[in-house]
Amino acid sequence: MMKEEDKQKLEGVKEQIRHERKMFRLESNLLLKISDTWNVFCEEMRRIFHDPGVIVLFFVAPLLYPILYNVLYFRNELLEVPVAVVDMDHSTESRRFIHEWNATPEVEVTHICVSMYEAEYLVKHGVVRGILYIPNDFNNNLASGLKTATLSLFCDMSSMLYMKNVYLSANKVMLDNMYKIQIDRYAAMNMDPELSWAFVQAAPYEENVMFVESGGYGHFLIPCVLVLILHQTLLLGISMLTGTAAQENREVFILPGRRRRYSILRILLGRGAAYFTLYMALGCYVLLLIPQWFGLPHIGQAGDIIRWMVPFLLATIYFGISLTAFMKERETGLVMLMPTSLIFLFMSGVSWPEMAMPDIWAAVSVLIPYTVGVHGFLHLNSMGGTLNTVPSEYTILWIMFACYFGLSCLLYFIRSKHYKKLQRKGLTSDEDSDERARRELDALIHDQEEAHIRAMEQSLYNALNNVKHNLTRLPDDDAQDVNDQFKE
Amino acid sequence: MREMKMMFYKPIYFYSTIIVFLVSCIFFLSVLHEGQPEKMPVAVVDLDQSSISRRVVHELNATQSVDVTVRCVTFEEARLAMQQGWVYAILVIPEHFYSDMLAFKRPTLTFYTNMTFTMGGTTAYKQLMMFSNLASGAFQREILRKKGLPDHLIMQRIQPIAIDGHMLSNPTSNYSVYLSSIILPGILGLIAMIISIYTLGIELKWKTSRELMAEANGSIVCALMGKFLPHTLLYCTMGWTLNILLFRILNFPIAGPLWQLQIGIFLLVLAMQAMGTTIVGLLPVLRDAMSIGALYGMMGFSCSGFTFPVTGFVPAMRAVANLFPLRHYFRIYSNVALYGNPFIDSLPIMLCLFLFLAPQIAVNIRLRNAFINQNYPLK
């Protein structure tokens, strides 16, 4: 019985020991993994801060660009566009019309011309941006009430904003005048003014411009550009870092400090965390502080914007890592990705409505974190929404993050497989032979130089020893003197 | 020269120039091919639910530039749709709209436009404003008709004064004409600059610059000219093809002769390459030069002033805008294509573009030293 009990006890102890060992192994494994990830994180941070090119992209650009853009569009709106008037009528009515037009904030009548020819010359040389032509029967038509008095408006099309200003302001003045004339006529027919208003404008309208009250160009463009800056600098920076790593013959999927340890997950997590930490801080500056400093629309909740930033940045980071998985040179990414900025800006549908976009591009735009993300940001920042009212973009960003994380794992896996195959063949890297030869030559020269230096050092040392040896034979005082001289 | 060989051997040249440029061309031309955005989604909140309000909605739907996609019962619902970006504008038809109208009580139509999305918002806004005016006009016409006035007199009554607009040289206010003809040459110039930085920087990076100098007999000017000649030819060919495509095949309006614009393209490419060289000359480290070049290049689009006109900038920025070659190309473009001014007017602007070659000459000495001594960090 006793034996049985002992045996059981022993078994129990053994079991316990086994279990503890297992736990310990697991724990140390986990700790190791965490410390690995931490190492990757530190390594990536170090690389970022030691690379001036990346510093320009990661810090100078996000810090400076928003300010530059705000200064550029500081005036925000285009006011007092210079226009010319060709008045062939010279009547009180025509002069009043010109006067009223001049009084609108959008335009300023700077030239009164005597002929169309003169006015056209002014437009062609960029002096004025629009012409109003008043024909000589203008007043007559108004007075007789038998014909519609027609004015002609000519707009410079070099910028749509000129056109918008000239056109809208003239139309407003025209409508005002139209109602006034009608009311006057009805008044002449002894109609009750109240009634005549109802007659002339049966259903008046009230216009409300929402969210961007000024309707200004800067206030519309800059929020989109802010998000674009974050997105593009992140992509370019990642491509640069990946390319550099590949160039310096460090394979991106090897853990730092070890030669043959691959762990894709740890690497990706560590690198992602490095970018994420930096960009959360930069994002707060670009998306929260800048709009406040420069009076851009910012009616969003800061907490919501930060919460939105998390999936946006994560999706962008892994989008960047996936894109650049096979990049071999640091510059490739820059050359390829630069012109996409404009395409992304357009694809987002902020300037050109997405509804008018061909289906294929609309489909592509769903794949890019920027185009999805910017809608979320505008919703939160400019339109006063909350995360509860913007669920679709928010979830899409999380899904995007998951997809790109998976994709980047897959791509790195393929790459590491490829690398292992090469290793088996005895080729550690696939750089072309030319470059390898150059590198070897460099190394050789380096070695030779070093050997040379070492030899020189050696001879110098020998000489010194000889001198010292000789010195010992001299009387002490003299030796002291010479020694002092040596020291000097 | 050997640059030709390099261009053929390195796929990056091929991808980045031809492929990237082609993709951008296809993208912008296909996205903007309609010229004017049509069928912008709007929401209608019909609080009246009468036959006339339904007719209003119906007729609004029939207009070219808006499309009633959401019909709501409460304003809250419509506002949410607008906040989520489903619609660009909301039209609210008040309660008792029909009966108030008949009683001459002037019921007010209210519309809300979302200016966060400028194009969609503006288009919807214009359409709604016009529509509201037309609605009033239609009401007046009906009453006058009942009174037995003939139609031509009614028209005169309703609209005693009218404006007919003429948009000089872009009669349909086509956005493709307006944007593509500047953005695409701009992208070309951007590529030209980045590649010229790349191609010079790579010589320093791989320490091959001495070979280059040896081949050019020690003359930096010869070396640069030999190096850029194939690039310049390539970009000019691309730019010229683009302009022929835009103005001859797609029939974008152009008032002046095309060859003047082609000179503009040539000068733009030269100027951008010169700016690239200047940047490398100042910063002979490839990675830094590329980053700086990227920042400079992207600013060019905003500063060229074809979206937000330069006259609207603060004065200091107006001066800065002149530092970007694309700005001058835009001026040549408006001179030639929009206004059809004689060649003599474009000449000073072309001279300005030519001046961009000057700083490059200044950095030549520095560049030569860098090429020969190779005393800069490698990476």
Give the topology:
The complex is a heterodimer of chains A (488) and B (379).
Chain A: H1 2-49, H2 52-72, E1 81-87, H3 92-103, E2 107-113, H4 116-124, E3 130-134, H5 138-144, E4 149-155, H6 160-188, H7 193-200, E5 205-210, H8 217-247, H9 264-293, H10 302-323, H11 330-337, H12 340-347, H13 359-366, H14 369-381, H15 391-425, H16 433-473, H17 476-487
Parallel strand pairs in A: 1-2, 1-3
Antiparallel strand pairs in A: 3-4
Helix pairs in contact in A: 1-9, 2-8, 2-9, 6-7, 8-9, 8-10, 8-11, 8-14, 9-10, 10-14, 10-15, 14-15, 16-17
Chain B: H1 2-9, H2 11-31, E1 40-46, H3 51-62, E2 66-72, H4 75-83, E3 89-93, H5 97-102, E4 109-114, H6 118-146, H7 151-158, E5 161-167, H8 175-205, H9 209-215, H10 220-249, H11 258-282, H12 286-303, H13 315-321, H14 325-339, H15 343-355, H16 357-373
Parallel strand pairs in B: 1-2, 1-3
Antiparallel strand pairs in B: 3-4
Helix pairs in contact in B: 2-8, 6-7, 8-10, 8-11, 8-12, 8-14, 10-11, 11-12, 11-14, 11-15, 11-16, 14-15
Structural summary, described in words:
The complex is a heterodimer of chains A (488) and B (379). Chain A is elongated and about 125 Å long. Chain A is built from 17 helices and five strands. Chain A is α/β, with parallel strands linked by helices. The relative contact order of chain A is 0.08. In chain B, 68% of the residues lie in helices and 8% in strands. Chain B has 16 helices and five strands. A four-stranded mixed β-sheet of chain B has the order 2-1-3-4, with helices on both faces. Classes of the chains: A alpha/beta (488), B alpha/beta (379). β5 (205-210) of chain A pairs parallel with β4 of chain B.
User: How many domains make up the coordinates of chain B?
Assistant: 2
On the 0 to 100 scale, the average pLDDT of chain B is: 78
Structural class of chain B: alpha/beta
Tell how many strands the DSSP assignment of chain B holds.
5
Q: Which chain pair has the greatest contact?
A: A-B, 123 and 120 residues
Number of strands of chain A: 5
Distance between the termini of chain B: 26 Å
β-strand amount of chain A: 5-15%
Residue stretches of chain B low in confidence (pLDDT < 50, at least 5 long) are none
State the strand order across the main sheet of chain B.
2-1-3-4
Distance between the termini of chain A: 89 Å
Helix and strand succession of chain B? HHEHEHEHEHHEHHHHHHHHH
Q: Report the mean per-residue pLDDT of chain A as an integer.
A: 76
Order of helices and strands of chain A: HHEHEHEHEHHEHHHHHHHHHH
Structural class of chain A: alpha/beta
Radius of gyration of chain B (Å): 29 Å
